[in-house]
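Work Package 3 committed the consortium to producing structural models of liganded targets before the mid-term review. Because experimental data for this complex are still outstanding, the team generated a predictive model from sequence and the ligand definition alone, so that downstream docking and mutagenesis planning could proceed in parallel. The input record is reproduced below exactly as it was submitted to the modelling pipeline, together with the SMILES string for zinc ion.
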Amino acid sequence: MNLSRFCAAAPLLFAPLMVFAEQAPVIAIDVGHYRENPGAISARGIPEFEFNAALARSIGEALASAGTRPLPIGADGNMVHLHARARAARAGGASFFLAVHHDSAQPHFLEPWEWQGVPRQYTDRFSGFSLFVSRKNPKLEASLRCASRIGAALIMQGLQPTPHHAETIRGESKPWADRENGVYYYDNLVVLKMAAMPAVLLEAGVIINRREEELLQTPEMRATIAKAVQRGLSECGATR
Ligand SMILES: [Zn+2]
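The resulting structure, written out as tokens with the ligand in place, is given here.
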């Protein structure tokens, strides 16, 4: 094959595709926490950051295969400053901000157990996903619409929201924004209130729960959650 001829023709052949890709909406996928301060610790001692990074990758793949451009933020584990995350989303032209996290519980619920000879802490009392939006985000209406659609899509896949953040105890007491779909208000969450675009934080599940931790580590569960997030974002208009 005459390669020079093929290469000369290539830009023309792929031009429509490239224009489409450039116009595709950018969705920021923020990997919660960083290596030095990795968030919650699972019942078996795995840092939350590792769960967040793996799920964020799956969500990025699901979004890319549906024609949007994922913009990973903090994926290398070195993004120490919270304010830098919203700035990176804006600089990257993101039209939506999704923070990916995994959940724990208040310390007084934790009980000791041993895993592979190492003392650990767990509670099996709570399970399920939750979603958060901030009333201080300038695009609250779109944030809430998308959080609700993501929650509904997760429920369609057989997952359940956890009500434990609404309990009137110290550290919780979050008001419901959409109880049916597992969405709470969390006004002062930095990444949500600093984002210039609609923003949602997803707690994909409770990793201090021994059974749920195992489920959340499977590629199948990550793919299920990722697909539901993609569907929810599509239904709320974030990917158009
Ligand atoms: Zn977290």
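Reviewers should note the following from the model. The two ends are 40 Å apart (CA to CA). These observations will guide the Year 2 experiments.
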